[in-house]
Design a protein that fits this description.
The protein is mainly α. The chain has 14 helices and 7 strands. The protein has 2 domains: 9-183, Rossmann fold, CATH 3.40.50.300; 191-287, Helicase, Ruva Protein, domain 3 (Orthogonal Bundle). It has helices spanning 9-15, 25-37, 62-66, 76-79, 95-99, 102-107, 150-157, 162-166, 177-183, 191-209, 222-228, 233-246, 250-266, 274-282, and strands at residues 53-54, 67-68, 73-74, 84-87, 109-113, 118-122, 126-129. The strands form 3 sheets. A 3-stranded parallel sheet has the order 1-4-7. A two-stranded antiparallel sheet has the order 2-3. It starts with 8 loop residues before the first helix and ends in a 9-residue tail after the last helix. It binds zinc ion (ZN).
């Protein structure tokens, strides 16, 4: 999420777990195990029944984030397993810390090797990151003026590497509250109906993957993408245009296909239509620089 200070990015992130599907019993056990190993389980708590939400501060070390220590302990990415990891002010995190996220984002697991021991911890988390568009926070704002130079803005945005940006499915601009109040006539939808749509989409995905080892579109392999994300000629053309205009990588194209599949599922559409692909492409706005 990119937007000026006070636009509600943190609030949106914190509310996200309210629209996620409830944990299954097996998932609850997985989450409980990680918390137990980390020594974070309260004495009266026998089973973690809600999806975790973790929001470490930007001063965190790479060991704190991905795990580590003499006797390897799970880090924040494992404590966020099957839940949400929220990184506010993403460009403020140390570069090595952010880069350490790349492999677990891809694999859903983290292996920590120390001289005497090797330990693997699960790390299937949903990453939500928030940042201002520039050092002062108001670049592109419709109400306040930004005083940063193009070079300052470029430098700030380049703190997030292309390969990390590549691994984020949805890039969303969050305008200032003042602007939204002026332009939004509709009142927002509450979490309950949204959660119902999410649950229905999850059911479709469970049926789709059957006995395969995954439960949602985000975890599709290349082979599964070929099988389940077939698109028509018009949608193909849209993707070709996006590759040309945004310079998309093959990885980004796969992500567009997965997101298109999910948008179609949320609309209960068995085919991926070009309008779904067009929406998914819109969410890749940061593949090119903001300026
Ligand atoms: Zn600025």
């Amino acid at each position: 999420m990119v937007g000026p200070p006070g636009s509600g990015k943190s609030m949106l992130a914190k509310r996200l777990p309210t629209i996620l599907p409830d944990l299954s019993f097996d998932e609850a056990i997985e989450v409980t195990k990680v918390f137990s190993i980390a020594g974070f389980l309260n004495r009266e708590e026998t089973l973690m029944a809600v999806r975790p939400f973790r929001s470490p501060h930007h001063t965190i070390s790479d060991a704190g984030l991905v795990g580590g220590g003499q006797t390897p302990r799970p880090g924040e990415i494992s404590l966020a397993h099957l839940g949400v990891l929220f990184l506010d002010e993403l460009p403020e995190f140390k570069k090595n810390v952010l880069e350490a996220l790349r492999q677990p984002l891809e694999d859903g697991t983290i292996t920590i090797t120390r001289s005497s021991v090797t330990a693997s911890f699960p790390a299937k988390f949903m990453l939500i990151a928030a940042m201002n568009p520039c050092p002062c926070g108001y670049f592109g704002d419709r109400v306040r003026t930004c005083h940063c130079s193009p070079q300052q803005i470029r430098q700030y945005q380049s703190k997030i590497s292309g390969p990390l940006m590549d691994r984020i499915d949805l890039h969303i601009e969050v305008p200032s509250v003042k602007y939204r109040a002026l332009s939004d006539k509709e009142t927002g939808e509450s979490s309950m109906p949204i959660k119902e749509r999410v649950n229905k989409a999850r059911e479709l995905q469970k049926k789709r993957f059957g006995s395969d080892d995954i439960v949602c579109n985000a975890r599709m392999t290349e082979k599964q993408i070929q099988e389940f994300c077939q698109i028509g000629e018009e949608a193909h053309k849209l993707i070709e245009m996006a590759i040309e205009k945004l310079g998309l990588s093959a990885r980004a194209v796969n992500r567009i296909l997965k997101v298109s599949r999910t948008i179609a599922d949320l609309e209960n559409s068995s085919n991926i239509e070009s309008v779904h692909v067009a929406e998914a492409i819109q969410y890749r706005s940061l593949d090119r620089s903001l300026i």
